[in-house]
UniProtKB/TrEMBL annotation, chain A:
Membrane-spanning residues: 6-30, 37-56, 62-87, 99-119, 145-162, 194-216, 228-252, 267-285
Top-level taxonomy: Bacteria, Pseudomonadati, Pseudomonadota, Alphaproteobacteria, Hyphomicrobiales
Protein's membrane topology: Multi-pass membrane protein
Species of origin: Pseudovibrio axinellae
Sequence similarity: Belongs to the binding-protein-dependent transport system permease family. LivHM subfamily.
Keyword presence, Transmembrane: yes
One record GO biological process: amino acid transport
Main location: membrane
Designated name of the protein: High-affinity branched-chain amino acid transport system permease protein LivH
Molecular-function GO terms, alphabetical: transmembrane transporter activity
GO cellular component, one term: plasma membrane
Localization per Swiss-Prot or TrEMBL: Cell membrane
Sorted UniProt keywords: Amino-acid transport, Cell membrane, Membrane, Transmembrane, Transmembrane helix, Transport
Pfam families: BPD_transp_2 (PF02653)
Primary gene name: livH_5
From TrEMBL, chain B:
Identification of the protein by name: Arginine transport ATP-binding protein ArtM
Gene Ontology molecular function: ATP binding; ATP hydrolysis activity
GO cellular component: plasma membrane
Alphabetical list of InterPro entries matching this protein: AAA+_ATPase, ABC_AA/LPS_Transport, ABC_transporter-like_ATP-bd, BCA_ABC_TP_C, P-loop_NTPase
Gene3D superfamilies: P-loop containing nucleotide triphosphate hydrolases
Keywords: ATP-binding, Nucleotide-binding, Transport
From TrEMBL, chain C:
Organism: Pseudovibrio axinellae
GO function terms (MF aspect): branched-chain amino acid transmembrane transporter activity
Phylogenetic placement of the source organism: Bacteria, Pseudomonadati, Pseudomonadota, Alphaproteobacteria, Hyphomicrobiales
Alphabetized InterPro entries for the sequence: ABC_transp_permease, LivM-like
Any one GO cellular component localisation term in the record: plasma membrane
Transmembrane residue ranges: 20-39, 51-77, 83-116, 123-141, 171-190, 257-282, 305-324
Membrane listed as a keyword: yes
Protein name: Leucine/isoleucine/valine transporter permease subunit
Length: 293, 255, 357
């Protein structure tokens, strides 16, 4: 394979994996911006969506598109329930409490998934046909192209939602000042649940696109770590920030896997994470630093 | 007698000239007050002096030593203590612990001595406690000694913050709005403490204050600032009668 | 009612400030000292494991509880401590030199973590420590020439000056003395100015700097001390697992350390010890619970995770100050009886306060 083609292909792979990381990061960012909670259970919600998708499409034999939609809906619902039942009870407590609480939820979810589905590996089909596409002389798998397209559409829709719609603007206000939003008659509680459902749905979409690339098993939640790295690099801030940082991490990871040893892939990602934080302690898209006195 | 001198201090944030060429002299045993409307750049000046932010240009001397741009902790070690506009206390520690931390700049023992609780470390712990007790008595905070700071009233918290700064036995004390939020009685007490600290204990005080009653009672010199520049300098009556200052506070049509 | 009566400042600096607590410590220590004569071998081994956990959790408490540097990756220090010790022992280095080298390496690792996370705080710090631990685990796994990779290495028996501490009763006394030394060092730290400086760092960095505290140096000291103590625990722990692999020091261990700190209550040595006891007994407890479950799921890893998760959720929701905090409330009630006021520990309704800076 000529060098340039290998490079472009790994670039495309990097972008598609990075788009998924970006989506996971987006799941973190949405909840963080409105409530300053980092939902460490997001990886397990993502894993749940993959298992649910498998159960519906393989075990129950539903058509794949219906199974995918249903899995997204179920994950979103689960995410909303988690917020209503548990997380919303400790609003106003220090960040540390939220980290621990969502970690606890993560453990519980992971344990339940293990109980229900067991530790076996399964494979899940993708929505896209298993064919190769020829783009400008470079062959790409349809699956990869589909990931990039879906992510793009989703990101544009979210941008429109937050910039133009009433509810989206209300959510933005919530992120700025919860008390003020409450006084402005924004239904804070319901809005936060909405955000959690949205975040869960995005994680589910990421999970259902990721699962066909890997396998559906109980290590799938580990991809959350990459999502966290991306969210931090993108400063926990914006939709484009998360996507940009996601693609950066995806590309770094793929290129390191191809041109260095595959064993060092994750290490290179970790190293670049610390390098970027050393230079930009607030992430690549961070605003001003230092507390005002 | 040591002086704290600031010459040609500039602090720009991008295009915004928060402080533009400010010079001032503070002497030990004297109280210098900076007045001015919100956004005049007063806090920015003292943040630059105490090393919280490196100034764009200008020099700060303590005695004949240049301290411009040193780290905040280095400047504190040299004997400049400060308080904050919005109270920066160690919320989850007791009043005593807060005030004792003021003693930190006099710490001489090594970490190792502290870990093994050697006699030197024990002696220093007693010294810190003694210093803190003196402050507690001086500021009449004894009854609050073991209370956690987070539950105290605003006035007491201000006192504790002042006490913490005093416990470092500074040669200069920089106060950011010491009387804001205090009751009339508390403000009167504060005025007494400030006079006593300067006149009887030789501490130089640089304070930002809006309460003109307090300023005209205690300050030896007053500087009025607006939009990052110095409008007027002099004694309190001089500054208060300055036409620019009146215009700045009341608007020109009133003159 | 109970009154504290003090006559000198030294009374306040003493470790044992009340005659009653002196008695309590004496009983606890005496029990620890003599119980191996009566309890069975199984409990002796379990107790040693709890002592070692106690050391590790005190190490975590120094950075997380005192300095407020909440990390999610302390397994890295346990792992590096264990590996350094095992490798040096394997190379024929005497026990004491080996264990102090492990402590030094972990202190250095702590400084390294402080340097790379120098300007980070809060959430970013928590996440970067998590990533740091993953990176360390990865390196332990792939540096095969030194660590034997994922195959693991054997840990030689602890032999100090010709005496073997491999038997469970000898090892019990080894870990007990290690724990007591660590407790005393940590207590000394907590009553010193440096210890207060750590607390200052936690509550307001700006104010700490304005008092002459070098924020970056103090952060490094916090991580170095925390790393050193945790690494010490890790080195001792290696003798319990005999054969160490990188997986022994994965994210699960990090989270168990955090869980223990939360159960016990952050910020006090007693809390750390309570946490160690609970976490140490958790596997036992879980196996008891699992015995009640239907056979089909009795041997799965699922229930463990659910129980760990539920405990964590329960503590955050209902007992955020940990068991030690609960005990403090009871103690306060006893000491002030009958003048106890419900409002002392009452919570007010809160809104989200931004911790973004």
């Amino acid at each position: 394979m000529p060098d340039i083609e290998l490079f472009v292909q790994s670039l495309a792979n990097g972008v598609s994996v990075g788009a998924i990381y970006g989506l996971i990061a987006l799941g973190f960012v949405l909840v963080y911006k409105s409530t300053e909670v980092v939902n460490f259970a997001l990886g397990d919600l993502l894993m749940f969506s993959a298992f649910a998708g498998w159960s519906l499409s393989v075990a129950l034999g539903w058509p794949i598109w219906l199974a995918v939609l249903a899995a997204i809906f179920l994950t979103s619902l689960l995410s909303g329930i988690i917020n209503e039942a548990v997380v919303s009870r400790i609003i106003g407590q220090p960040q540390f409490a939220h980290i621990l609480l969502t970690l606890g939820i993560a453990f519980t979810l992971r344990g339940l998934i293990l109980l229900i589905w067991g530790a076996d590996q399964r494979s899940l089909d993708s929505l896209a046909p298993d064919t190769l596409l020829e783009v400008a002389g470079i062959t790409l798998r349809a699956e990869r192209v589909q990931i990039i397209l879906i992510t793009l559409v989703l990101v544009i829709a979210l941008q429109f939602f937050f910039r133009k719609t009433r509810f989206g603007l209300a959510l933005q206000a919530l992120g700025e000042n919860q008390m003020a939003a409450y006084l402005m008659a924004i239904p804070v509680r319901r809005a936060i649940s909405g955000i959690w459902m949205l975040s869960g749905a995005i994680a589910a979409i990421a999970g259902l696109m990721l699962a066909p690339l890997l396998l559906v098993d109980t290590n799938l939640w580990l991809v959350m770590v990459k999502g966290l790295i991306v969210a931090v690099m993108g400063s926990f801030h914006s939709v484009p920030g998360a996507l940009g940082a996601g693609i950066l991490v995806g590309v770094i990871e793929q290129l390191a896997g191809v041109y260095l040893d595959a064993e060092y892939r994750d290490l290179v990602v970790y190293a670049s994470f610390f390098a970027i934080l050393a230079v930009f302690p607030k992430g690549l898209f961070g605003g001003q630093s230092a507390k005002k006195v | 007698m040591m002086k704290l001198r600031v010459a040609g201090l500039k602090q720009y944030f991008g295009g915004l000239k928060a402080v533009d060429t400010v010079s001032l002299d503070a002497k030990q045993s004297e109280i210098l007050a900076i007045i001015g409307p919100n956004g005049a750049g007063k806090t920015t000046v003292i943040n630059a002096i105490t090393g919280l932010r490196k100034p764009t240009a200008g020099t700060v001397w303590l005695g004949d030593k240049t301290i411009t741009g040193l780290a905040a902790n280095r400047i504190a070690e040299l004997g400049i203590a400060r308080t904050f506009q919005n109270i920066e206390l160690f919320e989850h520690a007791s009043v005593l612990d807060n005030i004792q931390l003021g003693f930190y700049r006099h710490r001489k023992v090594t970490l190792c001595a502290e870990l093994f609780n050697l006699p030197s470390a024990r002696a220093e712990a007693v010294n810190a406690r003694l210093a803190a007790e003196k402050i507690l008595h001086y500021l009449d905070l004894v009854s609050w000694r073991d209370k956690a700071v987070s539950g105290l009233s605003y006035g007491i918290r201000k006192q504790v913050e002042l006490g913490r700064a005093l416990c470092s036995a500074p040669s200069f004390l920089i106060l950011d709005e010491p009387a804001s939020g205090l009751t009339r009685e508390e403000t009167l007490d504060l005025g007494y403490f400030l006079r006593d600290l300067a006149k009887n204990r030789g501490i130089g005080i640089l304070m930002i204050e809006h309460d003109m009653g307090l300023v005209s009672r205690v300050a030896d010199h007053v500087i009025a600032m607006n939009e990052g520049r110095i409008l007027a300098k002099g004694s309190a009556p001089e500054v208060q009668s300055n036409a620019d200052v009146i215009e700045c506070y009341l608007g020109s049509e009133m003159v | 009612m109970y009154f504290d009566f003090k006559t000198s400042y030294n009374d306040d600096i003493r470790l044992i400030r009340r005659p009653l607590s002196g008695l309590f410590y004496a009983i606890a220590f005496g029990t620890a000292l003599f119980s191996p004569l009566v309890i069975s071998e199984f409990y002796i081994t379990e107790s040693s494991a709890i002592f070692v956990l106690g050391i590790i959790i005190i190490g975590y408490m120094i950075s997380a509880g005192m300095a407020g540097l909440v990390g999610l990756g302390h397994a890295a220090f346990v792992g590096v401590g264990a590996y350094t010790h095992a490798i040096l022992l394997g190379a024929g280095v005497p026990f004491l030199i080996s264990i102090f080298s492990a402590i030094a390496v972990c202190a250095l690792l702590g400084v390294m973590l402080a340097v790379i996370s120098l300007r980070l705080s809060g959430l970013y710090l928590a996440i970067s420590t998590l990533i740091f631990a993953l990176a360390v685990e990865h390196i332990l796994g792939s540096w095969e020439t030194l660590t034997g990779g994922y195959e693991g290495i054997l840990v030689p028996d602890p032999i100090i000056f010709g005496t073997s501490f491999a038997s469970s009763i000898n090892y019990y006394y080894l870990t007990l003395s290690a724990l007591v030394s660590v407790i005393i060092l940590a207590a000394n730290l907590m009553r010193s100015l440096s210890g207060r400086a750590l607390i200052g760092l936690r509550d307001s960095e700006q104010a700490a700097a304005s008092l002459g505290i070098n924020v970056l140096k103090t952060k490094s000291v916090a991580f170095a001390l925390s790393g050193a103590v945790t690494g010490f625990g890790g080195a001792l722990m290696s003798h319990q697992i005999f054969f160490i692999t990188p997986e022994a020091f994965n994210m699960m261990l990090s989270l168990q350390i955090v869980l223990a700190a939360v159960i016990g209550g952050l910020g006090s040595i007693t809390g750390a010890l309570i946490g160690a006891v609970v976490i140490g007994w958790m596997p036992e407890l879980i196996s008891q619970i699992k015995a009640l479950l239907p056979v089909s799921i009795r041997y799965q890893p699922g229930p463990d995770l659910v129980i760990y998760g539920a405990v964590l959720i329960g503590f955050v929701l209902f007992e955020p100050l940990g068991l030690y905090g609960r005990w403090k409330k009871i103690e306060n009630w006893l000491l002030t009886f009958p003048l106890d006021r419900k409002a002392t520990f009452a919570k007010t309704r809160t809104y989200m306060k931004s911790e973004r800076v």
